[in-house]
């Protein structure tokens, strides 16, 4: 079973306000780099249960993508204590994902 959460706007806001570290992957099903990144996102969620790992489908949640100024995908944002602290665009290696949550 996957530890990756899928969220809408309300659920994302709850997760960000209730958890110390939230890692968000803005993606789309048709996006090649997003598909390449997916196994690493799953691994991150499995290996770091202290972090809430969330995927947001930009086609389903366009307002949320606009709110966080997502202009290309994948866009990865780490929130700590309710604030965005790290942002990466495009495919990055697993080690870089881990650096984002430290």
Provide the residue-averaged pLDDT.
95
Helix count, DSSP H or I runs of 4 or more residues: 4
User: What's the arrangement of strands in the largest beta sheet?
Assistant: 1-3-2-4-5
Query: What is the SS-derived class?
Result: alpha/beta
- Strand and helix order: EHEHEHEEH
> Can you tell me the overall shape?
globular
> Which blocks of ≥5 consecutive residues have pLDDT under 50?
none
Distance between the amino and carboxyl termini: 24 Å
Largest sheet: 5 strands, mixed
Written account of the structure:
This protein is 38% helix and 27% strand. The chain has a five-stranded mixed β-sheet with strand order 1-3-2-4-5, with helices on both faces. It starts with a strand and ends with a helix. With 102 residues, it is α/β, with parallel strands linked by helices.
List keywords for this structure.
102 residues; alpha/beta; five-stranded mixed β-sheet; 27% strand
Short synopsis of the structure:
With about 100 residues, the protein is an alpha/beta fold. It is built from 4 helices and 5 strands; from the N terminus they run βαβαβαββα.
């Amino acid at each position: 079973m996957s530890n990756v959460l899928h969220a809408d706007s309300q659920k994302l806001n709850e997760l960000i306000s209730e958890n110390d570290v939230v890692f968000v992957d803005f993606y789309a099903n048709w996006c090649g780099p997003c598909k390449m990144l997916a196994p690493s996102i799953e691994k991150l969620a499995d290996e770091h249960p202290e972090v809430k790992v969330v995927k947001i489908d930009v086609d389903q949640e366009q307002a949320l993508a606009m709110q966080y100024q997502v202009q290309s995908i994948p866009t990865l944002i780490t929130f700590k204590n309710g604030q965005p602290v790290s942002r990466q665009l495009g495919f990055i290696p697993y080690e870089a994902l881990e650096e984002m949550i430290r």
